[in-house]
């Protein structure tokens, strides 16, 4: 988005791909590829070279090698010495943040423009009462929050008093604060089925998690988001670990994930707590008291599902709603999710992969606004 200054005022200038540099075009593709390859730089570059060969993304004046050099200069990648003496290139914190921001723009930006879906988008949660402070513009800020006077001052001081362009980096907004907070735990299934049947389900789940993390840290800094993954066991991961997340040769221990989520939420001081669970399969594993695992992938095992229903009921007693995002449409598994949801008095969505991000964001906003009243 650009503002272009004229004597008569300002206007929006439409996005024009001709104004985008080759580096920016390649970097946009690279961010997608590095997410898909779970942070593997070499594999992402191999994919980029293959795309370049097919679609002529580069020119004689700017090659993939030039792009890699620019990534180094701009601080998006770093080179390290491996124990065997060779070199290893990996992405930096700056790239991780850029990936999260891109995921937010892909999912939440699309949501803001769309009128379709199962919930209405509420604007109330995006604002709050003015705090009297100014801060730099961030993606998702409402246009009516922009302080034009201060933004023009920034542009003038940077470019001079005449013939200046008001760009996004010049914009400042009136900051706001929220009186209440929400604590969310996002559970991500990393069992082997998340890459079975020729469908990559883990990459969309990672994108949703990164986008939700970016939304909360930039728009609701007083809210908290914990992310846990579950296979045979469950464990928490950091937001910075998301680009590198991969599935394992695991069964699905839904109970372990719910236990950990509830333990994390019990420690929160916020009264408003919730669990989001992204999964594509049935619960098929339990860890027993002696440390062994009880596994059954053949159908819905009453012993395992019974434990899940008990966990859902416990969360209900703690006033912790569980929203399940089931990314398969198997009617057999819907029976389990329906009963699980009734036990918690939560919600369930059978979304597939295409609408997953929009559903998560709509529900986060709706839950937040409803529980903040």
From TrEMBL:
Residues 111-132 are annotated as: Disordered. Pfam families: VWA_2. InterPro entries: VWF_A (IPR002035), vWFA_dom_sf (IPR036465). Residues 120-132 have a biased composition (Basic and acidic residues). Residues 184-282 form the VWFA domain. This is VWFA domain-containing protein. It comes from Mesohalobacter halotolerans.
């Amino acid at each position: 988005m650009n503002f272009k200054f004229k004597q008569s005022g300002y206007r929006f200038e439409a996005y024009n791909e001709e104004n985008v540099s080759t580096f920016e075009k390649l970097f946009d593709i690279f961010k997608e590829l590095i997410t898909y390859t779970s942070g593997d730089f070499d594999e992402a570059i191999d994919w980029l070279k293959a795309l370049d060969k097919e679609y002529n993304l580069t020119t004689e004046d700017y090659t993939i090698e030039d792009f890699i050099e620019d990534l180094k200069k701009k601080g998006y990648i770093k080179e390290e010495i491996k124990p065997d003496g060779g070199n290893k290139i990996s992405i930096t914190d700056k790239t991780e943040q850029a990936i999260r921001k891109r995921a937010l723009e892909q999912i939440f930006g699309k949501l803001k423009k769309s009128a379709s879906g199962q919930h209405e988008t509420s604007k109330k949660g995006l604002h709050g009462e003015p705090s009297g402070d100014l801060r730099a513009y961030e993606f998702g800020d409402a246009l009516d929050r922009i302080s034009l006077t201060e933004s023009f001052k920034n542009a003038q001081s940077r470019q001079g008093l005449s013939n200046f362009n008001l760009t996004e980096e010049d914009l400042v907004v009136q900051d706001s604060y929220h009186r209440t907070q929400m604590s969310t735990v996002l559970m991500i299934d990393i069992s082997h089925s998340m890459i079975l049947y020729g469908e990559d389900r883990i990459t969309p789940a990672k994108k949703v998690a990164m986008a939700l993390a970016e939304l909360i840290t930039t728009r609701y800094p007083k809210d908290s988001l914990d992310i846990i993954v579950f296979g045979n066991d469950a464990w928490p991961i950091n937001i910075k670990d998301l680009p590198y997340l991969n599935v394992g040769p695991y069964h699905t221990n839904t109970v372990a994930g719910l236990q950990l989520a509830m333990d994390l939420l019990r420690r929160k001081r916020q009264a408003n707590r919730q669990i989001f669970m992204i999964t594509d399969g049935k619960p098929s594993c339990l860890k027993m008291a002696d440390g062994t695992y009880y596994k059954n992938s053949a159908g819905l095992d009453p012993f395992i599902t019974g434990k899940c229903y008990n966990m859902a009921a416990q969360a209900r007693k703690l006033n912790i709603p569980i929203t399940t995002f089931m990314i398969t449409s198997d009617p057999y598994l819907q029976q389990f999710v329906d009963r699980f949801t009734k036990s918690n008095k939560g919600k369930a969505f059978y979304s597939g992969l295409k609408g997953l991000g929009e559903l998560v964001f709509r529900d986060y906003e709706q839950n937040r606004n409803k529980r903040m009243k």
